[in-house]
């Protein structure tokens, strides 16, 4: 079953670094990586997914804790880990996810970027959003939660249509502890 | 603006404990809690959302890091935090989210529970799934990621339709490090 992944088609790349925040040694992969040490990386400490979706794994050989990585920027371990109960800052193998669905609206916004959304989106970059930040929101209905990293990870901020006019004009208005406007996923809140 | 939440309608409860894993002192809230210390809790260390959606906050007065809490079980800080870059195990105020959307299929499954899904679901309990665990999966198409806690938090496991017949008959088959079948959210993987 593992062999299936070793003969996968070449895809758009995952770019990895051996230091956090896209520093240090860099390598681009377009297909499976069974073992980062074989490529001279003891582990991966930051990565960017430029296209497609990838599955990362804690150990070599696609073993251990799993990390689903959609298009976007992952500057540190916290950005891709789904769990902090089990704190191992390690990603030693990864492979493309062949059957992931394509984003519904891949056209990048033109001019001053603006996107209208009515559905959950685990990766704004996959929608063609050209930046890892958002400057403002207008919430027409319901409650939404936006997150710092793809896949609903990192800091999260609540956006509500019944706050005054649903307008969030500046990063200061959607989170008192927000340091940047970094937002890479957004979804509706369900009850 | 904060006052709006202090006069909100009573809702179905959030139940909180002052120790992890639903241990220690217990209290049930049906409306806003501006300050847990005022109720004799220095902080909340575990909670269950029985209905509705709630916003939790790091500090008293709905300040600091935000946590969106949908229906389900949150046994520890890791279960509700969206970020571990900023490790403060604290939730000192919370309020209902009034405008969250209702889950699309609230009827609980009868008999031997079985649910068919075609859309992302941040809370299986909100769909009427009566347990915090799942015994098996059949993936008809695409790639999905299931997560241990509501809101796509905790350990995560990749489920793919092109793995043999899309069948995951036991927790051992969807994650080598999984200790339980605890699954409380599930969504499609996007590329």
TrEMBL record, chains A, B:
Keywords: Eye lens protein, Repeat. One of its GO terms (molecular function) is structural constituent of eye lens. One of its GO terms (biological process) is lens development in camera-type eye. Residues 12-51, 52-98 form the Beta/gamma crystallin 'Greek key' domain. InterPro entries: Beta/Gamma-Crystallin, Beta/gamma_crystallin, G_crystallin-like. Crystallins are the dominant structural components of the vertebrate eye lens. Homo/heterodimer, or complexes of higher-order. The structure of beta-crystallin oligomers seems to be stabilized through interactions between the N-terminal arms. Belongs to the beta/gamma-crystallin family. This is Beta-crystallin A4. It comes from Serinus canaria (Island canary).
């Amino acid at each position: 079953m593992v062999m299936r992944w070793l003969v996968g088609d070449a895809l758009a790349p995952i770019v990895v670094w051996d230091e956090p925040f896209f520093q240090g040694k860099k390598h681009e992969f377009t297909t499976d990586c069974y073992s980062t040490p074989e490529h001279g990386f003891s582990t991966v400490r930051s990565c960017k997914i430029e296209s497609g979706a990838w599955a990362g794994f804690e150990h070599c050989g696609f073993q251990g804790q799993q990390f689903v990585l959609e298009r976007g920027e992952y500057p540190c371990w916290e950005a891709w880990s789904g769990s902090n109960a089990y704190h191992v800052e390690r990603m030693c193998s990864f492979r493309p996810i062949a059957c992931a669905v394509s984003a519904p609206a891949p056209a990048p916004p033109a001019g001053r970027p603006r996107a209208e959304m009515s559905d959950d989106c685990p990766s704004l970059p996959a929608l063609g959003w050209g930046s890892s930040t958002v400057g403002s929101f207008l919430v027409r209905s319901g409650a939404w939660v936006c997150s710092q990293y793809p896949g609903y990870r990192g800091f999260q901020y609540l956006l509500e249509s019944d706050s005054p006019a649903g307008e969030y004009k500046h990063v200061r208005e959607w989170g008192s502890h927000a340091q940047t406007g970094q937002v890479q996923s957004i979804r509706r809140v369900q009850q």
